[in-house]
Design a protein that fits this description.
Blueprint lengths: L14 H4 L9 E2 L1 E4 L17 H14 L3 E4 L1 E2 L6 E2 L2 H4 L3 H7 L3 E4 L9 H11 L3 E5 L3 E2 L17 H6 L5 E2 L3 H14 L2 E6 L2 H12 L7 E7 L9 H15 L4 E7 L4 H10 L3 E4 L6 E3 L2 E2 L3 H14 L3 E2 L2 H8 L10
Parallel strand pairs: 1-16, 2-3, 2-13, 3-6, 6-7, 7-10, 10-11, 11-12, 12-13
Antiparallel strand pairs: 4-5, 8-9, 14-15
């Protein structure tokens, strides 16, 4: 009697080898700081940087506080509106590079209002060590916040936040393939932003296609409306799924907790063997009801928590070695 054919299984590292690092307190943890982003608007916090001078200052201070990677977006200096313009990036990125040794990570996410070519414009010029890459098209919305805003600082903000309810962030499989193909030629590596379990399987698809090679950097984004929710169990699901798909020794895991979930989820991520991301792009708060006055405040806080847990903080040189980056001398910032 013929036996039914078993579905193919992904061959990865044995479980014991995968999980060995979970209890290793001597490993180094990379702190990424996302300085301003494109989702929050200035009315949400008077401390959100949007001029080139403020973005530069916040980034340099965050690096001095212990951030090994700086995740950067640009904004219109007149009103804080997200912009993809290379001429705006050039007003702060070279100065950050001169003042810090941090890895400069240029977002290819931009905003839902930008075209793909808009979002890639500066990264194509700079050819940086690292870019961010969202691993799929998705609903991405902060629109419930609009009902809680007492006033707006600039006239574009209300429509921008409310309009997210009817906007989709686009990164199709073809978009992702084209970005990987182009930026592999530059030697750029990626912060793979995975907002749900399906994004991990998309990542695995491109690993199997040979377009992504280890070590790769998975940023697990928890708590965005449209993505996986902020329940702690979901962080375990993301970690265990990545282990099953790739084998723990093939990738670096990191955690981004959105909004009020920031510090608790990134701390849990570190305990699960991961790295951490903070910054005013992800949360404008330092503690319940307390606005963060700077990105450096959030870096100082998570660094203190991690060091109290006996973890060691990675330097930029450590991060470059852990992620296989090409080095600052090979970029055109």
């Amino acid at each position: 009697m013929l036996q039914p054919e078993r579905p193919p299984t992904r061959r990865r590292q044995p479980a014991l080898r995968r999980h060995r690092s979970m209890s290793n307190l001597n490993r180094k943890i990379i702190i990424t700081c996302a300085i301003t982003g494109s989702a929050h608007v200035p009315s949400m916090s008077e401390h959100l940087p949007f001029t080139p001078e403020d973005i530069r200052t916040h980034a340099i201070d965050a690096a001095q506080a212990g951030a090994a990677i700086l995740h950067l977006h640009a904004r219109n200096p007149a009103d804080g509106r997200p912009t993809p313009a290379p001429e705006v990036f050039r007003q702060f990125v070279p100065a950050i590079a001169e003042r810090t040794d941090a890895v400069i990570n240029i977002s290819t996410g931009g905003s839902t209002r930008m075209t793909l070519d808009d979002r890639l414009a500066y990264a194509r010029v700079a050819k940086p060590e690292m870019c961010s890459l969202n691993m799929g098209s998705m609903n991405f919305s902060l629109h419930p916040i609009a009902a809680r805003m007492p006033s707006w600082r600039f006239d574009w903000e209300k429509e921008y936040i409310e309009g997210m309810e009817d906007m989709i962030f686009r990164n199709t499989l073809r978009d992702i393939r084209n970005i990987l193909t182009e930026f592999n030629d530059y030697g750029t590596r990626f912060e793979f932003e995975c907002y749900d379990v399906g994004h991990l399987y998309t990542l695995a698809h491109f690993v199997d296609a040979g377009l992504i090679k280890p070590p790769f950097f998975i940023q697990s984004v928890i708590g965005i409306l449209g993505g996986i929710g902020p329940d702690p169990e979901n962080l375990v699901v993301m970690r265990s799924t990545a282990d099953r798909l790739f084998g723990r020794d093939q990738y670096q895991f990191s955690v981004l907790g959105a909004g009020r979930h920031q510090m608790s989820l990134v701390t849990m991520g570190a305990i699960l063997g991961g790295n951490v991301r903070v910054g005013l792009e992800d949360s404008v708060y330092l503690a319940k009801g307390v606005k963060a006055r700077s990105n450096a405040e959030q870096v100082h806080k998570i660094r203190r928590i991690l060091e109290e847990l006996s973890f060691e903080i990675a330097t930029p040189a450590d991060a470059r070695a852990m992620l296989g980056l090409k080095g600052r001398d090979k970029v055109s910032l």
